[in-house]
Design goal:
mainly alpha, 2 strands, single chain
């Protein structure tokens, strides 16, 4: 066991992931670096904790489990750097496109908030009364 390893509870507290999620990640082959102590309990060396954070970021930004698994299965070695980088670059581009869509959608939501505040300011209870004037629905 690597010095500095921590148990699943500590990893859960460090990452905010539940212990069940960490166990599921391991069963699904997303966490290759998890070791076992002499009593059979999970032991996460520092590299495994860093990898958990990477998997958490990939999943949190919408990378499909199959893609995370493919990334993990590439294994160690210089020969995989290009493929890993390409997978991450493609994912980053997808995230950036989603962020841009979210920004556009957020602008629509904020516009609607302003519209409702204006209705309230004018004492109107029906959007149709000013919706016809300014094109809002």
């Amino acid at each position: 066991m690597v010095e500095g390893s921590v148990g699943i509870r500590a990893v859960s507290e460090l990452t905010g992931l539940s212990m069940d999620t960490l166990r599921w990640y391991e069963r699904e082959g997303l966490l290759p670096l998890v070791e076992r102590d002499p009593d059979g309990r999970r032991a996460y060396p520092p590299a495994a904790v860093r990898f958990v954070r990477l998997v958490q970021a990939l999943r949190g930004t919408g990378m499909p489990v199959d893609d995370v698994r493919a990334f993990v299965r590439m294994g160690p070695g210089l020969e995989w750097h290009e493929k890993r980088a390409a997978l991450l670059e493609e994912h980053a581009a997808n995230v950036e496109r989603r962020i841009e869509r979210l920004r556009r959608d957020l602008a629509v939501v904020r516009d609607k908030i302003g519209h409702h505040r204006e209705l309230e300011r004018r004492g109107l209870d029906c959007e149709d009364e000013i919706g016809a004037e300014d094109g809002h629905a």
